[in-house]
Design brief:
Mean pLDDT: 89
Distance between the termini: 35 Å
Shape: flat
Strand content: 15-25%
CATH architecture of the largest domain: Up-down Bundle
Structural class: alpha+beta
Largest sheet: 4 strands, antiparallel
Number of helices: 13
Helix content: 25-40%
């Protein structure tokens, strides 16, 4: 506490009064500050009170506000996770009940009324699952994905359509932790599974190819390289290059000892040479930590490699901007005929006559009206199609050309294994003749597929059969409309038929003979006898709902083989659901731990902030009492020296 001494008699009156007034002002300001500390409870109320403490307090308050925000986020995330856990529990319980119903419905024999009752029970289970998946919380569908406008699942006729997204909602619960607070129907129910994925479309390198899309999307980061013709190095700055064309232009502008460089493009990469083509020495190396030349495969620091310097296979990733004329190694593909998508009993034609790029194909498929979603898989660079409808068969085939095959989207090809027929159950073989074909000239072909493994093998055995000669030869091939095998011959004196002997189910498995029949008769088309088989490899989405819908149909029909085929899937679906619920539980536990740590941090921050700016009430009161006494003394002295009677001057 600073106090000015009382003036001595030798001090001038003016100076004494001035010093007393200053003392009174100081005491008044100090008391005012002490009163403020008492009323606010804070020692530091402005930056000037204690600059060092104030700066620390600002930082601590910012940390407190961030911690409070994280706690609010944690509370919100806990709400979402609790609702998600409830939905997951509902799904688990419904699947457990469904398994019991399936076991009861698989008994044989059962009456029609019993089968109908079990089928109806499964139908109610499906409705429960749809209701659970469509449950909303705070205006957000729990299993709809991060962005949803409508309920993710809807029942239409005898199938269920998913319209949600694969994105998952997340919440920031700490500085470095973005916690997923939900799951989507893909994760819990397996909806939206891929039904077709293209082969490697093998995009060619063009001037428009982005450097970031080379090597399947891993990319090449442009840097500074240097080149030499044998007489000193010349730096070439490629950092501004975005495409292969930019790289080509930059190198083409370089002249080494009067000789211009020339970069040419091939379907797989680039080659660097002198424009005059006269050979010589050409050294190329990276500068500093750059790796552009090395990654491209044109690094030749000692100049030992002969010209031209040919790059590695740059393998550009497939993107929406890739032109159809630039795929297939630059040969291009013709998809103008379009493709067909069969969804149950409905057929959708995808018009690709105006398609120029991969993105055009994606858009055309998505606008076809079929319940599918086409996209480009960024990790594999392949075109893929997801089936959004559960409970129906999908088939992607041709529309009079070979667009589906060229895109790699045809679901039934010659590479299909015979073990995949009949939905993976294969077929019954006799060990001898498995298929008979009566030609239009009356002769008969006996087809033995022993040792055959694919559809291509079966087609070859028909076309190359020793007795399949002459003008009435039967030609087997894949259909050019939709999917399936086609048998064709010129019309003759007899009818073209295909049959299967007793003990064989190959004809049915190949789609050439309808279930329950023993043979198929050809139809006449412009003087040709034609048999068009059905799709021998229909595709299922394989989701939980898809299995339940098929199981409902199988139980109602008393189809024991189908029930037996589908039953193992139920264990997988339940396991998938249980795993997702366990994942949600793990997130809740992690959230609790983070929240507890954040709460403890908030308490510690509050304590540190209190140490910096809060007032010590005992100290404040003690100082205020002393200051009041000092002020009273100053006032008394002032009163005494300010008296103007004659006695004061004696």
């Amino acid at each position: 506490m600073s106090l000015l001494p009382v003036s001595t008699p030798r001090t001038a009156d003016a100076l004494t009064q001035q010093r007393l007034i200053r003392q009174l002002n100081y005491d008044s300001l100090t008391l005012e500050n002490l009163y403020t500390q008492l009323s606010t409870g804070q020692r530091v109320n402005t930056l000037s009170d204690d600059p060092s403490a104030a700066i620390s307090a600002v930082s601590l308050q910012a940390s407190q506000e961030y911690s409070a925000t994280m706690l609010r986020n944690a509370q919100s995330a806990e709400g979402y996770l609790n609702v998600t856990d409830t939905v997951s529990a509902t799904i688990d319980n419904a699947l457990i009940e469904a398994q019991g119903t399936i076991i009861a419905g698989a008994q044989d024999p059962l009456g029609d009324a019993e089968r109908d009752a079990y089928a109806q029970s499964l139908s109610l289970t499906i409705d429960r699952l749809i209701t659970a998946a469509n449950q909303s919380y705070r205006g957000h569908y729990v299993l709809g994905g991060a962005i949803d406008q409508t309920a993710p699942l809807a029942r239409e006729e005898d199938f269920v359509v998913w319209s949600g997204t694969s994105a998952v909602q997340s919440t920031q619960i700490s500085k470095d932790w973005l916690l997923e607070t939900g799951i989507n129907a893909q994760q819990s129910l397996g909806v939206g599974a891929s039904i077709a994925s293209s082969v490697d479309l093998d995009a060619a390198v063009t001037r428009d190819t982005p450097l970031s899309k080379l090597y399947g999307g891993k990319g090449v980061v442009p840097s500074v390289i240097r080149a030499s013709g044998g007489d000193g190095w010349t730096d070439i700055d490629l950092r501004a290059a975005k495409t292969v064309g930019d790289l080509q232009d930059a190198l083409n502008s370089v002249s080494l000892e009067g000789r211009d460089l020339s970069v040419t493009l091939s379907a797989t990469g680039i080659s660097v040479d002198y424009a005059d083509g006269l050979g010589g020495t050409l050294s190329i190396d990276d500068v500093g930590e750059g790796k552009t030349a090395d990654l491209l495969g044109i690094r030749n620091p000692q100049g030992y490699n002969g010209l031209p310097l040919v790059s590695h296979n740059l393998n550009p990733a497939i993107t929406g901007a890739v032109k159809l004329t630039d795929v297939a190694g630059g040969a291009g593909i013709d998809v103008s005929a379009g493709i067909q998508i069969d969804q149950g009993s409905r057929t959708f034609t995808v018009d690709l006559s105006l398609a120029e790029t991969i993105e055009d194909v994606v858009v055309a498929i998505n606008l076809s009206g079929a319940d599918v979603k086409a996209s480009i898989n960024q990790s594999t660079g392949k075109l893929q199609i997801a089936g959004l409808a559960d409970g129906v068969d999908y088939s992607i085939g041709e529309n009079g050309g070979n667009a589906a095959a060229q895109l790699g989207l045809r679901t039934a090809t010659t590479a299909t294994k015979l073990s995949e027929l009949n939905r993976g159950l294969g077929f019954e073989a006799t060990g001898g003749t498995d298929l008979t074909i009566s030609r239009t000239d009356g002769s008969e072909l006996e087809i033995d597929v022993d040792g055959a493994s694919t559809i291509a093998d079966v087609i070859d055995r028909i076309n190359n059969h020793v007795d399949n000669l002459g003008p009435n030869a039967v030609t087997a091939s894949l259909r050019t409309d939709g999917n399936g095998i086609q048998l064709q011959s010129i019309a003759g004196t007899s009818t073209l038929t295909v049959g299967q002997p007793a003990g064989s189910s190959l004809g049915e498995a190949l789609g050439l003979i309808a279930p329950g029949s023993t043979e198929t008769t050809a139809i006449d088309e412009a003087g040709n006898a034609v048999i068009r088989g059905s799709d021998y490899k229909p595709v299922e989405t394989g989701s939980t709902l898809d299995t339940l819908l098929r199981m409902q149909t199988a139980i109602q029909a008393g189809d024991i083989p189908e029930i037996t085929r589908l039953a193992p899937r139920m264990d997988q679906h339940l396991q998938q659901s249980v795993q997702m619920r366990a994942e949600v539980g793990s997130r809740v536990q992690n959230l609790d731990n983070v929240r507890q740590q954040t709460e403890e941090l908030s308490i510690e921050l509050a304590a540190q902030l209190s140490n910096q700016i809060d007032a010590d009430f005992a100290s404040v009161i003690s100082e205020m009492t002393a200051r009041q006494q000092a002020m009273q003394a100053s006032l008394q002295v002032t009163a005494q020296i300010s008296q103007l009677t004659v006695l004061n001057f004696l």
